[in-house]
Amino acid sequence: MPRKNRVWYPGAVYHIMCRGNHRHDIFRDEEDRLFYLTTLKEVKKELPYILHSYCLMTNHVHLEIESGDINIGQVMKKINMFYAVYFNKKYNFIGHLFQDRYRAELIETTSHLLQISKYIHLNPVRANIEPSPDLYRWSSYKVYVGEHQDELTTTEKILGCFSPPRVKNYRAYVEEVLKFIEDKPKGDEVDGNSN
User: Are 21 and 95 in contact (CB under 8 A)?
Assistant: First the structure.
């Protein structure tokens, strides 16, 4: 039975999640994460898209991504293929790196766009890796709160949903839940309903 086609239209926004096969690690060191970010940049040049938020965990990755005129399937196929070739060659790995095909949740409202950005940026906190999202190096949160600049993340759409001072209000929106997040065992097995 053929797979059901994903809903796509130009400008569609998605919460994408790619998990390692059998929940195995897809990032083993800093070089792997840097290569993945480089892959995102290189694919973006060839197949333009907008990356609103991201977080690289150990065994999965979250992307909040807006397609342009190119189907999101083509974009994700190229990202996953490039990274899998790199990973398999580096670690002499044979077989599928990613579990099934990526998960794609269509985002159609502003409130959903904001909720997913918050969810993505809080992933390391919920996984008990860091007590605050601004301490985690491998997400776009530092770009949002002005602690880091990159050419990958586009913050205008999400920050534009907040009144001035936008950065301060976005930070308050994300971090308001920190006091309610209970301590959990270390690791990045955080799935939530969106994975």
Answer: yes
